[in-house]
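Would you mind writing out a protein's amino acid sequence and the numbers that encode its backbone to help me picture the idea?
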Amino acid sequence: MIQRITSGQSYKWWAFWTIATGTFFSVVDHGSVLVALPGIESHFDASLESVQWVVVAYALVISVLLLPMGRLGDVIGRRRVYLTGTAIFVLASLGAALSTSLEVLIAMRVLKGVGAGMVQGCGMGMMIAAFPDSERGKALGTHLSVVGMGAIVGPAVGGFLVAWLGWQSVFLINVPAGSLVLVLSWFLLERGPGAGQYRQGQSASSFDWAGAAVSGVILLVLLLVVGNGNGLGWLSTPVIVGGVGVAVLTAAFIWWELRIRTPMLDLRLFANQIFGLGVAAAWLSFFGSSAARFMMPFYLQRVLEYSPEEVGLMMIPPAICMVLIGPFSGRLADRFGWRIPTVCGMALTAAGAFVLALALQERSPVWLVIATMMMQSSGNGIFNSPNSSSILSVVERSRYGVVSALTQLVRNSANVVSVAVSTTIVVSTMATYGVEPKLDAVNPEVATAFVAGLRWAFLMLGAALATGAAISLYRAISNRAGLPKSPVAAEPQPRPAGND
C-alpha cells in the first residue's frame, strides 16, 4: 500500500498533508505555550522576565538554525534531517512536561528549538519539491491556510489544556502528536530526489560548516540586539558593540560565501532581480504588518478595555482571511503569474497601515480595528504565496531546502525588527507627553499619548509597505519586459539519491 501511494499521482498531496500536519501542530504548540506562561510563572514562583525565556530561547534557536538545517537537508537529504528533527522535538516535549525547574524547562525548550529548526528548515522544501512547478503556488497557498488555522486553534487548545490539565499538558500533547507525524513521515515521505541530496557524492563533509557557524552567530547577536535595544537603550554599550559585531561578521560571511566552492547560501542568487527583489519585498511585507498584531491587543485591552477573551475573538476574522485567501491566491499565481497578486497584495496591506495611521483615535470603533487588520491579513494572504513561488521559480530544486528556510528566516527576522522598532516609536512618543515610556503603563488615562505613538508607528510601517509595493511593481514591470534571468536559475535534471 505504501509503495502504491508513493508511486501514485496523488503522492504530492500525501506528502503535503504529512508535512502540513507537523506544521499545524507546531503552530498550535506556539499559541498554547503563550497561554501557559502565567501557569509556568506561578508553578516555579519565577518572574515574568525569566519565564519569557521559555518562548524567547525557543524562537532564537529556530531562527539561528533555519538556514544551516535547510542547506544540510539539501546536502545529505531533507528526509533524514526532517525525521531527526521530529524525533528531537518529541523527546524535548516530553522533557519539558517533566521539568522540575525553570532552568530545565528552558533547556528543554532550547533542545525543542533544535528539533523545530531542523523540521522547519527542511519541511517546506520537501513539500514544494513534491509538486510540479505549475502547482507551486497552490501548495504554498494551502500551506499558508494551515498556518492560519493553527494560529486560530492554538490559543483555544492551550486555554483548555491549561485549565483542565495544567501547564505541563501543552508540552505533553506534543508527544502523541509528534509521534504521529514521525510515523507518517517515515512511511510516506520519499527517499529520492524530492527529499534532497540531488548531486551524487555530496556528504556532510561538503557542507559549509564555517558559513553555518558564522550565520548562526550573526542571527543570534542581531536578534538579541534588536529584541533588547529598547530596554537597554539603542545607544547603550552592549547594543553598539553588538551592532558593530554583526556588521563585521556579516562582511566576513559575505566574503567567505563568495569564495567557497559549496556555500551554505549562494549569494549570487541575489543578482537575479526576481529573487533579490522578491526577498526584499517579503521582508518589508512582514516588517510592515507584524507590529499591528502585537500592538493592537494593547489598544483593545488597555485603552478600549475589552477582556482578553473578547480580544482573542476579535483576532479570529483576520486569521480567517489568511486561511481563505492563501490557497486562492496561490492558485491564481499558478494560472496567471505572480505579478498582479504581489503588487495588489502589498498595496492592500499598506492601505491598512495608512488607515490606522490616519484614522485611529482614543476611542475608535472596534469595527475599524478589525476591518483594518482584515485588510492587512488579506493583503498578506494575496502577496505571500505568489511572492514565495516567484522566488523559488528561479532556484534549482537542489536548493529548495536552504531557500525555503531563507523565506522563513526573512519572516522571523522581520517580525522581531518590526515589533522592536514600533515599540521604540510608541514609547518614545509617550515620553514626549510626559508618560512613562513603557507599554505596561498604557491605560485609558494615557490613551492620547499611546495612540499618538501608534499613529506614528503605523505611518512608518505604511511607508515600508508602500516601498515594498513599489519594489514589487518594478520587479513585475522589469520581468514583463523580458529581462534575462540569472545563470544560477538553470534547472538541472535531478538524479536519484537512493535511500537516505
Remarks:
- The longest helix spans residues 11-44.
- The radius of gyration is 22 Å.
